[in-house]
Amino acid sequence: MSDVNAGTLTTDDVVQPFQIENTGLRGRMVRMGPLLDEILGSHAYPEPVAQMLGETVVLAAILASALKYDGVFTLQTKGDGPVAFMVADVTSGGDIRGYARFDRERLAAAPATGVSGLLGQGHLAFTVDQGEHTERYQGIVALAGESLAECVTHYFRQSEQLQTGIKLAVGRQGGHWRGAGLMLQRMPDPSHAAPASDREDDWRRAMILMDSATDAELLDPALPSNDLLFRLFHEDGVRVWAPSALRAKCRCSRDRVAGALAGIPRSELDDLKVDGHVSVTCEFCNRTYRFDDADLNAIDEQR
After folding, report:
1. d(CA 15, CA 8)
2. Rounded to 5 degrees, what are φ and ψ at 181?
């Protein structure tokens, strides 16, 4: 834990926890460079889809970093718009992956932006899965708002009764995708040390300062996270904790795919062959696994 100093260096693909000292407000800042470029670059997404999926990945990282869990945090959307499904998940070790499923013809016929235009009516769900011997936590909120950030802040207000502010930015720089996000939360004050009116003023002031950060500042690789936090909140004092690293890493493997194929009758697998192979492509990383007759025979022996 340390005070923010202008000039402090940082790196891409990290989550930076911080606290505004005079108000007790807690926050997270995420900066993504190569990580997001790899996730979005593995598919030929149209620009609006890549933009929305990028926001989903950044948002998932921010939300996951505020939780204590040992497993996988998943953020997903389902709607009746051109982008029917998006998902991003984050392991407790910082491995992230994500993908979007969309209708290219509908998207081309009626170009749209924003939640209502791209996702339509539907819901956003958060899931924390810590393994088969633990109970899964899930929160669901309607896609009510023009941005994913608005949907999530609505969830926190209604379900968690926790004031939350989120600002996201995703864009290309030099042909490469970058993403960033800020989240501030007003934690409960069980001691009631500060008058409610003062706490409300502190919250409004922090929201104004957070909103003053431009997309260009958030995405600027030459502007370290700690410098930006200092620029925004130095008058109230800002303290940072050690950042956590993030990585683009898919959890698919040949063994996992073979395990899934073992649940399909051999006759059906033979019907799926093309040029003598059964091919399975991971929706997340777009990697293709091919299985010939010798591979399928080996799978049969392990059934």
Report:
1. 15
2. -160, 150
Q: Does residue 292 sit in the same domain as residue 202?
A: no
The tens digit of pLDDT for each residue in 232-289 reads 999 999 999 999 999 999 999 999 999 999 999 999 999 999 999 999 999 999 999 9
Do 293 and 239 sit in the same domain of this protein?
Answer: no
Give how many domains the chain has, as a whole number.
2
Domain that holds residue 296: 254-301
CATH value at residue 278? 3.90.1280.10
Rounded distance between C-alpha atoms, residue 25 and residue 1, angstroms: 15
Q: How far apart are CA 242 and CA 17, in angstroms?
A: 7
The pLDDT of residue 79 is above 80: yes
On whether the pTM is more than 0.85, the answer is: yes
Residues 297 and 162 in one domain: no
Cβ neighbours of residue 293 closer than 8 Å, sequence gap 6 or more: 276
What is the chain's percent helix, strand, coil content, to nearest 5?
35, 30, 35
Helix, coil or strand: residue 299: helix
Lowest-pLDDT range, 31-40, 139-148, 280-289?
139-148
In DSSP notation, 140-208 reads EEE--SSSHHHHHHHHIIIII--EEEEEEEEEEETTEEEEEEEEEEE---TT--S-HHHHHHHHHHHHH
In the chain, the percentage of residues whose pLDDT exceeds 70 is 94
Say which residues have a Cβ less than 8 Å from residue 12's Cβ, sequence separation at least 6.
31, 32, 33, 34, 35, 178, 221
